[in-house]
Automatic annotation (TrEMBL):
GO molecular function, one term: endonuclease activity
Source superkingdom: Bacteria
Ranges for domain C2H2-type: 60-88
Keyword annotations from UniProtKB, A to Z: Endonuclease, Hydrolase, Metal-binding, Nuclease, Zinc, Zinc-finger
Residues annotated as signal peptide: none
CDD domains listed in its UniProt record: HNHc (cd00085)
Name this protein carries in UniProt: HNH endonuclease
Statement: the UniProt record of this protein carries the keyword Protease: no
Gene Ontology CC entries for this record: cytosol
Amino acid sequence: MSRKVKMIEPRVCAVKPRIGRAPGEKARDRERERTQHWRKWYHSAEWKVLRMLVLIRDRFTCQMCGKVDGNTSRLIGDHKEPHHGDRAMFFNEDNVWCICKPCHDGDKQRMERGALLSR
């Protein structure tokens, strides 16, 4: 005599991940790509080479907090001074420094917002 095995319903529901992009961030990124012509420069081979030169120059060390990280995906080639679409300033090695993602997304953003508010 064969019996069918019944599936047991899970008692815990699936939970959405709490990390990742903020709601609406993808749409915001798409809009920025569409309206700001210089955003495509971040995808160029020229930028990728410059970024790596800066990471090597700065010895894979965040220039804000001093943290060393060999995982380049967690390091940002960040512009010290905003380039405002100026190609020469965008690709100027002296205007780019290595900072870690937490510093870029936190401290640096607060500093930039504060500078905008104090104008």
